[in-house]
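Design review, sub-item: ligand-bound model
Attendees: FS, YL, KQ
YL presented the inputs for the magnesium ion complex:
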Amino acid sequence: MTKKVNILGATGSIGRSALDVIARHPGQWRARALAGGSRVAELVQACEATGAEIAALADETKLDELAAALKARGLRAEPMAGEEALCRIAADPEADAVLLAASGAAGLPQAFAAARAGRRMLLANKESVVCGGALLQSEIRRCGASLYPVDSEHSAIFQSLAAATPSQREKAVIWLTCSGGPFRTRRDLSAVTVAEASTHPRWKMGRKITVDSSTLMNKGLEVIEARWLFDIPPERIRVVVHPESVIHSAVAYEDGAVMAQLGVPDMRTPIAVALAWPERVASGAAPLDFTALSALHFEAPDLERFPQLGMAWEALREGGAACIVLNAANEVAVEAFLQGRISYLSIARTCRLALDAGLSGDVESLEGILAADREARSLARSLIDSGRALA
Ligand code: NAD
Ligand code: MG
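KQ shared the predicted structure:
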């Protein structure tokens, strides 16, 4: 029987790649609900291409426009809008799997909704794992949900851990690989422009994650994501810069054996793994030709030029709301940088000052986590508006 997939973030980079994988297997999967942020035309186009039954936008003010656009195209997809509608789509009992691919902490309530409804979660939205922390993982277990990582590094770790026993996992070390971003070899980052930070050497992604990849905040968020997804302490998570992005991450076992997953950099591979696991299906990604690889390079990350990476371990050690604060400060600062309001180096400075403020919060409930996120955002905005975060 054809399995139904709901996609949150359907008009984004991950969402579009997922629709491409699904379209390759018409008898096996089809899109049931497609949700985006605020872009009506792209969502309607995706509904037309897939025959989706539900079209939803996070932006409530766009409901009438969405309904009219669907009608104008003669589409029967039911229009919905607003945060609650998106959470209903995440929890939808009719869906066999839910792809969580919104950008930023906006995806947090959706991840909790999917977890609490016991869904099969295909998770790209790393910010929800970073902010949800231990609570999200315990809700997933309590409610019988299952989580398949879509982030390429975490998909690689998931595959490299697949045959490990619990005692083998307990001693394993995780190596997250990192492309190094566009500024790997640039000494002075003080004059980085929005255009330079919006271009990634290996991956074509959404704007926010592209900037995060250039500051290595993305890798920092992935360290935190790995800590929770694989229940592994931060001191057993390492990062290595590997500019070719062929080794997607690795697990080193006690006996010296290292298991890694390789492939050309194409997000359709981890999406296909998450969709089909424990099976494997064609994803559209080109095969890896070892004979065409001239060399693979590795180096330690430079924590001085990229301090946000180090802040990830710091926030994990600090515990409490620290990871939520780091994530929120980064989201606010990246947005301000993209709007031309602050310099590139001010992004790291905002994160530094926000972490140092030592905000505390209740991380034992979703409401507490959302409150800590709001408080950290307002702190980051005031750091920026008052000029204190300027670097
Ligand atoms: P993107 O900016 O291209 O797309 C984001 C999508 O979310 C869009 O469809 C947008 O309309 C939608 N959206 C905005 N607000 C929303 C809301 N409140 N609820 C639901 N949807 C909303 O981003 P992306 O590059 O596709 O990244 C999505 C997520 O996947 C991020 O968390 C990112 O870190 C993660 N990720 C992306 C890649 C990649 O290659 N792009 C790789 C690994 C992980
Ligand atoms: Mg990644």
